């Protein structure tokens, strides 16, 4: 696997599954290559179609092959999982870029809990 710099832009989400009994979700995204080093977006209040437009960078090392996106609903008592998506970095390495909607499959992948728009650019070192 190549090494270099991965720029990730979390653009927006759409049709995120409602986790709140009253009102809409307060979603945010945690993104990581390794669970020990997570980055996260701001929390957008009261929407199932949030717009983040936030930029993150990751140093890519030889063992990194997948980036994970965990979407949560922020609650007073903590956070509820809305869904989890992931992208194989091979797609980014091959083209140098990635611009797609990443689906958030539900448990067992039987339904989808929405999707997030992700743009990535890879610069080899």
From TrEMBL:
Cellular compartments per GO CC: membrane
CDD domains: C2
Coiled coil start-end: none
Pfam families noted in UniProt: C2 (PF00168)
C2 domain residues: 1-102
Cross-referenced PROSITE patterns: C2
GO molecular function: calcium ion binding
Keyword terms: Calcium, Metal-binding
PANTHER family found in the cross-reference section: C2 DOMAIN-CONTAINING PROTEIN, MULTIPLE C2 AND TRANSMEMBRANE DOMAIN-CONTAINING PROTEIN
Protein name: C2 domain-containing protein
Species assigned in the record: Adineta ricciae (Rotifer)
Native organism taxonomy: Eukaryota, Metazoa, Spiralia, Gnathifera, Rotifera
């Amino acid at each position: 696997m190549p090494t270099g710099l991965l720029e990730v832009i979390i653009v927006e989400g759409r049709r995120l599954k409602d986790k709140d009994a009253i009102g809409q979700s307060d979603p945010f995204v945690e993104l990581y290559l390794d669970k020990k080093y997570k980055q996260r977006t701001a929390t957008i209040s009261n929407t199932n179609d949030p717009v983040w437009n936030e930029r993150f960078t990751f140093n890519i090392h030889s063992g990194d092959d997948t980036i994970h996106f965990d979407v949560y609903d922020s609650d007073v008592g903590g956070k509820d999982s809305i869904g989890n998506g992931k992208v194989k970095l091979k797609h980014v390495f091959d083209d140098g870029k990635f611009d797609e909607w990443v689906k958030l499959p539900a448990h067992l992948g039987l339904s989808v809990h929405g999707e997030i728009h992700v743009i990535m650019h890879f610069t080899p070192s």
